[in-house]
Specification:
single chain, 307 residues, alpha/beta, Rossmann fold, 36% helix, globular
Length: 307
């Protein structure tokens, strides 16, 4: 596992992550992962004794600001993006919807599936798809909660909707999304998969399930895969982890040992000083230097193995 020092820089809203008490961030992570409710999050943060700031103000600062964090405009002439529907037999409703971003040229293009966090297809994930499109990839960001009407416009309701889905059928919907993308008319049929948080865990899961049908994987702070299944992995993996993310990182001890024993082509980078979600530029957990470095590595990984 490689460790990279990445100084925490201010998020786009001008809030320095280092000014936010680690206890508040830890509670926010509990809330984001569905272990406590929004009400409990704010109640417990308000009860904390703080030095140099208000716990409530810190908690409010952690809420996402998507409009301020857009990197690639949806009108950028280097790419074209639209919502698409496709069949999903065996999933939660039999059909799926996603955000397809493609370079403006004629194609075909190497394909990358972008799997969202545990709250549906929010604007940050759509922006990631556009970032890939301007780099020459055909990118599909499926909305796992499309069977319940799709991302509702805010993360709280999105998180609640995703929790209501049949988890096994959601994985089927995402697998069908990968297969739809791989066989798309604009695809070279070279498939990469990246994902964040919940989506990062899906990348590790897909690596074993898809085997040779997946050519590269990049999980960001996602749940480690099953060590017993690593023998099925054919895709080179590039795993990005935050330093302060104990629940996720603990699973990579056995996973990395199994990857190494099975001879899987993998790299694991842990970014020092970072929090879970450091790539997401809509909240102060964002770390500019770690996000930039990890993204450069991600693009290089996909360009190497999907070309």
């Amino acid at each position: 596992m490689n460790e990279t020092s990445a100084g925490a820089n201010p998020a786009s809203r001008g809030v320095d992550p280092q000014e936010i008490d680690q206890r508040v961030i830890d509670l926010y992570n509990e809330y984001c992962h569905g272990y406590i409710s929004r009400r409990d999050f704010f109640s417990r943060v308000t009860a904390l004794a703080m030095v140099g700031g208000s716990g409530l103000a810190m908690a409010q600062a952690l809420m996402p600001r998507y409009a301020q964090a857009q990197t690639i405009s949806f009108t950028d002439t280097r790419m074209k993006a639209s919502y698409v529907g496709y069949p999903s037999p065996g999933g939660n409703s039999g059909s799926m919807r996603g955000y397809l971003a493609r370079p403006s040229g004629p194609g075909p293009f190497p394909a990358v599936l972008v799997v969202h966090e545990n709250r549906g297809l929010n604007p940050y994930i759509e922006d990631v798809a556009r970032r890939l499109a301007v780099e020459g990839f055909l990118a599909l960001a499926p909305d796992g909660i499309a069977p319940l009407g799709g991302y509702p416009g805010n993360d709280d309701d999105g998180r609640e909707l995703q929790a209501r889905l049949d988890a096994a059928k959601l994985r089927v919907d995402l697998l069908n999304s990968a297969r739809f993308l791989k066989t798309h008319a604009l695809s070279t049929q070279k498939l990469g998969v990246t994902g964040f948080c919940y989506g990062g865990g899906i990348v590790n899961y897909f690596a074993a399930v898809l085997g040779g049908d997946m050519q590269a994987g990049v999980p960001y702070y996602g749940m480690a895969g099953d060590p017993a299944s690593v023998g099925k992995i054919k895709a080179p993996l590039l795993c990005h982890l935050a330093e302060h993310d104990e629940r996720i990182n603990a699973g990579y001890l056995a996973y990395e040992a199994a990857l190494k024993a099975a001879g899987v082509n993998y790299q694991i980078h842990r970014y020092l000083g970072t929090q879970h979600g450091f790539h997401n530029d809509s909240t102060p957990r964002y770390d500019e230097s770690a996000a930039k470095l990890s993204w450069e590595r991600t693009l290089a990984h996909f360009k190497t193995y999907l070309s």
